[in-house]
Amino acid sequence: MIRIVIIEGQPLLRIGLVRAISQFTHPSMSVCGEADCEDEGIEMIAQTLPDIVLLNLDLPGMGGIEATIAIKRRFKCKVVILSTLADPEVVALALDSGADSYLLISSDLESLKLAIQDTHKGQGWVDPRVSKTFLASKRHQEKNHFIKGKKFGITLTITEIRTLKLIARGLSNEQIAEMQNVSLGTVKSCVYVINQKLEVRNRVQAIIRGILLGYLSYNTIILEAVSNEFTEPGISNFAAIRN
C-alpha cells in the first residue's frame, strides 16, 4: 500500500485526486491526508508519515518550491510536484529544490498512477511532455554556461540568476512574475531559494552578495536602472549598495 498526502489549494482538484487514487490497484494506493496549504500539509505529513506527497507548485504563501525544501529537510517521503507549467527551467528549479518527480496537472489518470508508482520505487519521473525539452535545456546549460559562484560552493541555476538580475534592477516580485510569465508563488519560491543559497535575509544583501560572487555587474546594474527609469524602491537599493 502506497500512502499519500495531497497538498493542493483547489478543493475540486484535490477531491478529484483523492477519487482517482482510491481507484488505483497493483499497487494499491490510499490518501492518508489532505491539506490546502503548506503549513497544514507539513503538519499532516508529521502526523501520517506518508510515502508520497503530491504537492501543487503554485501554493499560496511560501509556494511549492519552499514547501518542497521544508518537507525534504524534515521527512523521508518523496515529493511529486503538480504544476500547469511545462517550462524546463521551472522543472529544473523544482527538481533542484528536492522534488523527486514532476507531473503536469493536465495529465491523464494513467500518467498520475505511473508517476506515483515510479516515484515510490525511487525512480524520478518527469512528465513526457516536458522531459525532452527539459533534458535538452539541461545539456545546453551544462555545455554553455559557466557557473561563476561555483568555486565558492554557491551555485545558482539559470532561472535563479535571471531572477537575481531582475531583483537588482529594482523589480518587485509581481513585476518579475509578469515579465517571466510565471505565477507570483513561483517567483516568491525562487527568491526564497536564492536567499537561502546566498545566505542573506533581504534583497539588498542578495544584490551585494551577487556582485561579490560575479553573478551581477555593479556598473551594468546602475546603467540599466538609469536608462530604464526604474521606480524608487529599485533606486534605493542601489543607493544602499553605494553606501
From TrEMBL:
Residues of the HTH luxR-type domain: 149-214
SUPFAM superfamilies: C-terminal effector domain of the bipartite response regulators, CheY-like
Residue ranges of every copy of the Response regulatory domain listed in the record: 3-120
UniProt entry keywords in alphabetical sequence: DNA-binding, Phosphoprotein, Plasmid, Transcription, Transcription regulation
Domain of life: Bacteria
Entries under Pfam families matching the protein: GerE (PF00196), Response_reg (PF00072)
One annotated GO biological process: regulation of DNA-templated transcription
InterPro entries membership: CheY-like_superfamily, NreC/VraR/RcsB-like_REC, Sig_transdc_resp-reg_C-effctor, Sig_transdc_resp-reg_receiver, Tscrpt_reg_LuxR_C, WalR-like
Keyword Phosphoprotein applies: yes
GO molecular function annotations of the record: DNA binding
UniProt keyword Lyase, yes or no: no
Protein name as annotated: DNA-binding response regulator, NarL/FixJ family, containings REC and HTH domains
